[in-house]
């Protein structure tokens, strides 16, 4: 006898509207259906109706947490379509804000993960230290969350020599606290008992289900767009791709924490080696017919933009594939076999971002069953 | 128990990390993109700001023939301040206006 436990679309455990239908046998999860699409906003269609320059700010608003990844990916795709190359200094500043975003996103992950396992002291500490990154972002871009720094053909704002000592000081503080968290994750009894051997994704499953980003790296798959398809200043920076072998929640946390250390190291290198030169090149926005694909390693994994131009100031088609969408199928092997109490932390171990995700409606069919979409349902979705 | 005592004492004696915000102001960093302000005398009516605005938040005031910004739509990107040839529009550090209705 199995019972169905629906979680969502509105549920206090989830911060965003998403529907999970858990089939449970006592405490054990037997099956899970994932229904996406509650936060659909029609952004891809809107992107095709505005001009290239106005689209930068719309693409930033696909996701608030990874707004710089979205705008960088969009700008790089347009630059590729138009066949222009941004200046070296712009590339370095882009990499700097991208790395700061990675730190802040992982810090937020740590805070909410601590909250999900009932460790609210760590939540407070992580949020306190995240403030250093937010301050750095404010100094560099002029806004705490939305940077508005990227533009087509370069960046809009410069990092001045007076800002660098301030940034370095904050990076030192951050490094100290991240090292403390790594030590905490390795030794603390509460974290170990809640996270170890929970929500395991094996290496075979990770490859089979095409997991991306930290989720895949925690299962031992060495994948990173910064290495595989280098963009911005990453070919000139030295960093290592962090992997863990266990694939459980603890490993996913360790990957993120160690990635933060790498990001801090990279930010220091960028601030030391910042080349001089212009910030942006002028662009003619009437781009002749062409198409391009650009990939960026967002904090959650691979982000993909496809742009097709048609000779006007507006793109003909923009396709966005966000990391949560790519990683969503791997939720199933992580849930099945676990208990109901594990649901929040396992879900959060993927670092789900549904606001990014919901530009498509996806229905996972139950094993052995094919779900048929009726005309009635299609009509309902269209509205 | 004895091991945590120094930490407890240090935490008791240190200052809190938060500030009492409405009573204690925190100055944003230089170059913060706050409320945009328009100097009407400097405006040369080239309407570059209207072209640059990604949110169509800027319109023309019928009486004074100068641009006005609808703050409910503005996303504070600073494109208008960048586009303005006479620096009539600048981004100020003011962020404490969102509770006031303004059109």
Automatic annotation (TrEMBL), chain A:
Signal peptide stretch: none
Pfam families for this protein: Complex1_49kDa (PF00346), NiFeSe_Hases (PF00374)
Residue positions binding Ni(2+): 63, 66, 353
InterPro entries: ComplexI_49kDa-like, NADH_Q_OxRdtase_suD, Ni-dep_hyd_lsu, Ni-dep_hyd_lsu_Ni_BS, NiFe-Hase_large
Domain NADH-quinone oxidoreductase subunit D: from-to ranges: 117-281, 284-359
Record's keyword annotation contains Magnesium: yes
Domain of life: Archaea
Binding site for Fe cation: 66, 356
PROSITE patterns: NI_HGENASE_L_1
GO MF annotation: an example: oxidoreductase activity, acting on NAD(P)H
Co-factor(s): Fe cation; Ni(2+)
Keyword terms of this UniProt record: Iron, Magnesium, Metal-binding, Nickel, Oxidoreductase
Protein residues bound to Mg(2+): 44, 320
PANTHER family on file: FORMATE HYDROGENLYASE SUBUNIT 5-RELATED, HYDROGENASE-4 COMPONENT G
Listed name of the protein: NADH-quinone oxidoreductase subunit D domain-containing protein
Organism of derivation: Hadarchaeum yellowstonense
From TrEMBL, chain B:
An example Gene Ontology biological process: aerobic respiration
Gene Ontology, cellular component aspect: membrane
Coiled coil: none
GO MF term (any one): metal ion binding
PROSITE patterns per record: 4FE4S_FER_1, 4FE4S_FER_2
Keywords, sorted A to Z: 4Fe-4S, Iron, Iron-sulfur, Metal-binding, Repeat
Domain 4Fe-4S ferredoxin-type: 34-63, 65-94
Protein name stated in the entry: 4Fe-4S ferredoxin-type domain-containing protein
Organism, scientific name: Hadarchaeum yellowstonense
């Amino acid at each position: 006898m199995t019972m169905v436990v629906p979680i969502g679309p509105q549920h206090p455990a989830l911060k965003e509207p998403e529907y999970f239908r858990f089939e449970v046998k006592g405490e054990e999860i037997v099956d899970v259906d994932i229904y996406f699409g509650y936060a659909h906003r029609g952004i891809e269609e809107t992107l095709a109706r505005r001009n290239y320059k106005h689209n930068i700010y719309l693409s930033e608003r696909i996701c608030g947490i990874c707004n710089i990844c979205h705008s960088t990916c969009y700008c790089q795709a347009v630059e590729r379509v138009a066949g222009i190359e941004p200046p070296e200094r712009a590339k370095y500043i882009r990499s700097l804000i991208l790395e700061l975003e990675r730190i802040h996103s992982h810090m937020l992950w740590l805070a909410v993960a601590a909250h999900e396992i009932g460790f609210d002291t760590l939540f407070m500490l992580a949020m306190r230290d995240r403030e250093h990154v937010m301050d750095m972002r404010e100094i560099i871009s002029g806004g705490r969350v939305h940077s508005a720094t990227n533009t087509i053909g370069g960046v809009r704002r410069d990092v001045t020599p007076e800002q660098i000592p301030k940034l370095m000081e904050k990076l030192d503080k951050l490094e100290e606290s991240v090292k403390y968290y790594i030590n905490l994750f390795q030794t603390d009894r509460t974290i170990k008992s809640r996270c170890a051997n929970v929500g395991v994704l094996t290496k075979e499953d990770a490859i089979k289900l095409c997991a991306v980003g930290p989720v895949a790296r925690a299962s031992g798959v060495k994948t990173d767009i910064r290495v595989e398809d280098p963009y911005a200043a990453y070919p000139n920076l030295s960093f290592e791709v962090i992997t863990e072998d266990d694939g459980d929640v603890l490993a996913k946390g360790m990957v993120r924490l160690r990635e933060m250390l790498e990001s801090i190291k990279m930010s220091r290198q960028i601030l030391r080696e910042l080349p001089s030169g212009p910030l942006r090149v002028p662009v003619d926005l009437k781009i002749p017919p062409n198409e391009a694909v650009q990939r960026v390693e967002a904090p959650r994994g691979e982000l993909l933009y496809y742009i097709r131009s048609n000779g006007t100031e507006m793109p003909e088609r923009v396709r966005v594939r966000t990391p949560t969408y790519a990683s969503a199928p791997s939720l199933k092997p992580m849930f099945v076999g676990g208990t109901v109490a594990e649901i929040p932390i396992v879900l959060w171990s993927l670092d789900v971002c549904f606001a990014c995700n919901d530009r498509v409606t996806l229905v996972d069919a139950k094993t052995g069953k094919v779900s048929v979409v009726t005309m009635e349902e299609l009509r309902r979705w269209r509205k | 128990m004895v091991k945590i005592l120094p930490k407890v004492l240090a935490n008791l004696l240190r200052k809190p990390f938060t500030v009492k915000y409405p009573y204690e102001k925190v100055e944003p960093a230089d170059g913060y993109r706050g409320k945009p302000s328009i100097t009407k005398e400097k405006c040369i009516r080239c309407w570059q700001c209207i072209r640059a605005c990604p949110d169509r938040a800027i319109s023309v005031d019928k009486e004074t023939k100068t641009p006005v910004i609808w703050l409910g739509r503005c996303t504070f990107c600073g494109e208008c301040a960048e586009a303005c040839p006479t620096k009539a529009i600048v981004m100020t550090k003011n962020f404490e206006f969102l509770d006031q209705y303004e059109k």
